[in-house]
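Progress report, Aim 2. The chain analyzed during this reporting quarter is listed below.
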Amino acid sequence: MSRVSAALDDEASILVLAPSMRSETDEACIDMLTKTPPEQEDVLWVTFTRSPDACLQDWLAHAGGRPANLRFLSVGETVRSVATSASMGETPTDAVIDTLSNPGDLTGLGIKISEVLQQWHGDGNKTVACFHSLTALLQYSDVQTVYKFLHVLTGRFTTADVTAHFHLDPDAHDSQTVNTLKTLFDAVAEFDGNEWNVRTR
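Predicted structure tokens for the chain:
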């Protein structure tokens, strides 16, 4: 199976269209987070539906090296402390977890993301981000609100030279919603059940 990152150049924002509960999706996620050697990376993980523990397990299984910095923004009910995890001895770094209890607070989420980017600005590392997932976000906000939020956020990532990918389960939304959101991204990576198809603007 071809690696998604191999089909990408320097696109700042990538929409990942694939079912969330598949190993191919997890592998593609880590693949896009590790185009640069991990020790030269700052990794931001915004997660609605997965615990930081689950994300860390994926990282350990696929990435190999430790990122320079690892930050979680854990939104809604998935909050779990990595510090109490049985795998703490294996965690790739001292992960920092910020929690946001209200998944519909897009303003608060945007502020948190900006704060993290400011903290890492100028540290010499490449910043990469995973947003997991837009499907969960759309349970709390309508498409227009999410579109405006993403328009601002993807612009902010581009300005800060961040490479970010956003997960969306196409089976959970109507085609109009998917097509509307597609227009915001530099590239779309879609899994058709066998392989990844990547389209860039």
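The helical segments are 23-33, 52-62, 106-120, 134-137, 143-159, 175-182. Strands lie at 13-17, 41-47, 69-75, 96-100, 126-132, 163-168, 187-191, 196-200. These observations will guide the mutagenesis work planned for the next reporting period.
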